[in-house]
Each structure stands twice: as C-alpha cells, then as structure tokens.
Amino acid sequence: MKITVDFEECLKDSPRFRATIEEVEGDVCELESKLDKLVKLCIGMIDAGKAYNSANKQFVSGIRELAQQSAKDEVIESSLTKFAESLQEMINYHTILFDQAQRSIKTQLQTFVKDDLRKFKEAKKHFDKVSEEKEAALIKNAQAPRNKQHEVEEATNILTATRKCFRHIVLDYVLQINVLQSKRRSEILKSMLSFMYAHLTFFHQGYDLFSELQPLMKQLGGQLDQLVVDAAKEKRDMEQKHSTIQQKAALQDFSNDDTKLEYNVDADNGIAMEGYLFKRASNAFKTWNRRWFSIQNNQLVYQKKFKDNPTVVVEDLRLCTVKHCEDIERRFCFEVVSPTKSCMMQADSEKLRQAWIKAVQNSIATAFRDKGDNCEKLDRKSSTSTGSLDSGGEPKERSLKGESALQKVLAIPGNGCCCDCGQPDPRWASINLGITLCIQCSGIHRSLGVHFSKVRSLTLDTWEPELLKLMCELGNKVINQIYEARREELGARKPQPGDPRHEVEAYIKAKYVDRRFVRRPSDEELRTKVVSLSKQEKRLSSSSDHLPPKAPPPTPKLRPGSHASGQSEKSADSGIQNSADGSRERLATAASSNSLADAEAAEAPPLPATLPAASPCKEVVFFEPKEYSPGLQLYWASFARSLPDMAEALAHGAEVNWVNTEEDKRTPLIMAVHGGSMVTCEFLLQNAANVNQLDAQGRGPLHHATMLGHTGQVCLFLKRGANQNAADIDEKTPLSIAVDAANADIVTLLRLAKMNEEMREAEGPYNPSGQYHSNSPTEMQYRKCMQEFISLQLDESE
C-alpha cells in the first residue's frame, strides 16, 4: 500500500498528520523487515543452489565413471554418457540463474535498503528530535509568568526559532517519505521482474535441452516395463516382512513396559546407545532438563533438539567412571565422573538406569581394547590437571614447556616406562607421587581422587620449575621400591601393557589405596631411619657433632644457636640471599609502580641503606623422642631434604600435617622450611600440607621462612595462599618480622602480595583456596613476577 503525506498538512502538525506519519513509519519498518528477510532468503537460496550444483557435479562425475565401467554394454554406456552431458548443461544453466538472482534480488534490494531506507531513518531521527524540542518550547512558553517580561520574551523567541526549524525539518521528512514511497514500487518490481526473466530463460533452455533428449528417454522407458513388475513383487514381500516384525514388536511391548535399549558397539552410524535422560544443570539452581543422550565414538554427548550440534559431556570415556547415586531426592539417578567435571543424570526407570550404566562401562572396556592410533590421539588432547597452578601462557608456549618437561622427566632412570604397567613412552605424570604414567593408568589414577594422585600431562600442561625439580628427585624406580617392596613376596602379578582395565585398576588400588605391597618397618628399623635422617641434616648443616653409635636417640630440642651456628645457617642460605640480590631491583620496581604499594611503603618503617647481618636462629638438635612413628620420620626427612624418605613415610601412613607436640607443635612443612629446600616444601604442599598451620608460637611456615630469610620459600607460600596477615603470640606478622630484620627482598615480596590481594578483592570475591584464576593485568603481572623469582631461587639455591 502506497501512503503519501500532504505537505500542507505537515505544517499544521495536526493529529491527522501525526497518525499518517505513524502509519508511514510502521509501513516502512515492516517494509525493511520484509526486504531484509527476502534478501537473506535469496542469499540462502543462492548458497543452497551452489551447494546443489557442487553435489550435482560430483553426481555427474559418478555417472561418467559408471558409463566407463560399463563400456562393454553399448546401450548403457551411450545412454549414461548422453544423460551426463545433459545434466552438465543444466548445471551450467543453474549457475547462470543464481548469478542473475544475486544481481537482481540481492544486490538491487540491498542497495535500496542501505541507501533509501537509511536516508529515511536519518530524516526520522531529525524529525523526532525537533518535535521534542518544539514540544518543550511550547510548554516553556505556556508556563512563562505574565509579570516577568524577560522570561516571556525568551520563551517567545525560543518558540519562534523552534517552529522555523520544525517546519524546515518536517518538510524534508515528508519529502523523503514521499520519495521513498514512490521509489519502492519501481525498485521492487524491477528486481523481481529481472529475476523472473532469468527463470524464463532458464526454463526455456531446459525445455530445449530435454526436447532433444526425449526420444532416447521414451526408448528406454519401453524397456523398463519389466522392472515395474519386479518392483510390485518386492513390495508384496516387504509388506509381509513388515507385518511379521510388527507382531514381534507387539509381543515385546506386552512383556516389558520399558523402552528396550541395547548396547551395540558395532552400530553402522557409530552410535552404540541412545535415548532420553534427565540431566542436572551445573548452575546455581541445579535444574533438571530432558535431553537426548548418546554414546558414540567413545564419547558421551547430548542434544536438546535434533538440529542442534551435540554437546560433549565426556571427551573420552576411558578417563571417566560411572556410579549409582542414592543420596539425592530423585530416583533412578547415576553420575558420570570425568577428570574435569561430573554429570548427574536420571533415567525413567531402574532398568533403564542399569542399561545406561552397563553401556558406559562397556564403552570404557571397548575403548581400552582398541589400541593403536587412538591412544596416541588421546594423549595429545588437552587436560585439566588437578591442583596445577596456571601461569598463563599461549598455546605455543605451553607446547614448548611440555616438550621440555617431557625430556627432563623421562631422563630419570625408570621413568621411560609407565610406573604401574610398564607401557613405554609415558606422557602423563602423578605430581604428588613423582611418577610417570601411560594414558590408561593415568585415567585410573584420576578416578582414585586427588587425595591419592594428582595427574598432569607431560606434553600439554605448563610445568612450574619447582614441580619439575620435584619430579626429577623422585621417579618410578624410587616409588616402586617403596610401594612394591612386598609384591614378589606376596606373589602379586604386576600388570603388563594390554592387560584388561579392570585388572590394572585392581592392582593400582591395591598398590596406592590399600598399600598392600608396602613393607611396614619395625620399631628398630624406624628408629634407625630417624637417627640416620638426623645425622644427614647434621652433615648438611656442616656441624661437627654427631650421635654416639649405640646411644639412644635424644628428643628434638631447640636451643639458642651460638654466633657460629647462626653464621653456619646463614652460609647454608647464602644461595638464596645472593639470588635475592639479583631480583631485588625488579621486584621493587614492580611494587613501586602501583599507588597501593607506595602507600604501604610510606606506612612501614623505612629500610636502612645497609642491611645488617641476619639475626641468629635456633639450631635444631636431635634428642630421643618418647615414641617413633611414620610422622616422626616425615618430620625429620623434611628437615633433611630427603624426598624418598618423605615418600616412604607417607606410604607408611604418616599424616602430612603431623604435629610434634614435644617441639612447639611444629609440622613437617615447618621443618622443611628450616631445612632450606624449596622442593621439599613443594612436595608436602602437593600432598595436601596445610600452608597456614601454626606452631605453639602462633607461627606458620610463612613466619619461619621470613625469620630465616628464605626468600624463595616466601614466594612459594604466597603463591599457595599463605595468610600473610596472621600474627604470632608476639603480635608479629611476616611483614613486621621482615621489616625488623631489614630484609628488603621479603618486605618487597610481602608488600607486593598484599597489594595484589587488595586489587583482587576490589575486582571480585577473594578466592581463599590460594589458586589464582584471575586474568586481570595486575594478577598476571604478579604471578609472572613471583614465578620468575621462584625459578631464580631454584637455579641458584637448589
């Protein structure tokens, strides 16, 4: 419908004019919508046509190949060749038709929409704006008080100017409306007429082409009568088969109310099993939604609608477990747990739940039987490592780090094969055990839980230097000497590559969960081990004192160290102190670049220009304990920097946060701080040591590292979420201790950490776990600075 607006009427700005304008605007808006839709449909038609032409070309090529294969049959060869030529001509005609459609519909209508409708919209914006200004001027003029002449004059002048502007704008707007309404007819008809002429030409060409082909088609049609008779016979046979299957299905429905689901690993479409399940969402409301699930290509996927792309729940079923869930309100629930997430699902009945659980278990077993390229392909897939600290790197940087980590870890004796089954060339590792694993064993280790094993990829994940050094100080050979000490004695068979998954899983659980093959030490052996560890630390501390060969071992006591002992401990930490000097300037610059750090630096006491000597520390001396235990072995092994002895103590059941009540309630982590080894601290932290556990003096590991001036350990504890605001019984925080000791490096680190914590709290909720997930520039700069400092400390002090 063509709607025009009268120029005289627009100057009156009457309700009739406003109604006409509103009608025009609605009509133009609808016109734009229809034209946009038409252009999009045209584009879709053209794309579909091009795809059709492409597929048609392949089809014609197939006809030609079939004609060549039938060269001995002259009728088939000649007929197919003629048909292929004709169809190729039709493809050419289609191509011309789509080109014409693009020029006539898409290009012309898009130009009309972009140019003319855009001008209309701009004119409408000006009109709406000046209309509002005119309305405001009228209101102001009406509200001007009679006794204030200057306000009356001002309102009158504004109204006059606004009316002039309105008349100018409204006339332009009406002109644009009338021009658009006049032009729309010609533009639409011109494009459609051009499109219809293109179709006319296309069908004329097709008619002429098939008129020439018609005699041959009639000739062949006469030969096909026999085929019709054969088709009728096949139809009768198919109807009989249909009736038989329908009766069989009715009998099955009568005997079983549930939908019958069968697991078929050899299905032609690759879908081993499919059906509807309810899935619990991972949002805060935990809503349940019905989705179409399927097990295909060793993956568990679901779809909301058939046209949607499948959503992958489990990337690879070899890395997951499935179990019943009876502790929630809904019935028939089961859970599929993967290394990165878990998915709670609900079936319609108990039979269906059992069928799905069995199907997932069968898929896992089938996947592990399928060897070859699949394992290598899976090994290259990305994984989320439990307990890893993301240091934020590009994919290329990660790959380089992964290859470097792989070379270093596999160079350790025994690491060239899987620790549990002996599969060569492992690509995974358990970072808290310090061993390398194959893909199958890594999946089993993940299912044990992170309290037993934390799995990480050697090729895909980023490896922090302290964690890499931890892996290099343990290894498969050391761990197997501990966890398989009694295997041969008990007659247990160690799995081999290719063994069934359930056998490997049973062995790994017996080895690490039940610790069935660990040799339990006698009291005398434990006593000898603890005494030996204390002697190792005395040698490390360069002390000339040693224990009598047969005297009973004394109780650990702390006594104030002499100046010589303090000097000795200072010498032991000289590597850390010297390395701190090299990075002090960089950290101080990073901290001073932020105003928060400047403010805190202004509040804290100024550091002297010349640093005094480190204050003397208490020397650890060994005396006979009341009772020997694996916890005591872990305690002294941490002090002696002996990771194999620490791993052995944990295997014997030592509590990683064991407290020595006779020695100020110190823990193995605190003793590791006094031992001066960053890798020892990392090993305890990876095995769930509490970084904030306090001793009897109210001091945590961060307090002790600050008092001893162990800068690298301070970095490590801050990185793992140590509370730097905790105060001891003397009301001393780590920062105040560092300020009193005039340790510029540690003061700078603590201030930088506090500044970063305040920035993180300002950006969002604080994450008390100590794992840094923020990607803000401040957070990334802080993490990078801390990691560089730890790397420097490891290079120089370890």
Automatic annotation (TrEMBL):
SUPFAM superfamilies assigned to the protein according to its UniProt record, in alphabetical order: Ankyrin repeat, ArfGap/RecO-like zinc finger, BAR/IMD domain-like, PH domain-like
Region (Disordered): 376-400, 524-610
Function: GTPase-activating protein for the ADP ribosylation factor family.
Classification of source organism: Eukaryota, Metazoa, Chordata, Craniata, Vertebrata
PANTHER family: ARF-GAP WITH COILED-COIL, ANK REPEAT AND PH DOMAIN-CONTAINING PROTEIN 2 (PTHR23180:SF241), CENTAURIN/ARF (PTHR23180)
Entry keywords, A to Z: ANK repeat, Cell membrane, Coiled coil, Endosome, GTPase activation, Membrane, Metal-binding, Repeat, Zinc, Zinc-finger
Source organism: Fundulus heteroclitus (Killifish)
Name by which UniProt lists this protein: Arf-GAP with coiled-coil, ANK repeat and PH domain-containing protein
Summary of activators and inhibitors of this protein: GAP activity stimulated by phosphatidylinositol 4,5-bisphosphate (PIP2) and phosphatidic acid.
ANK repeat feature ranges: 664-696, 697-729
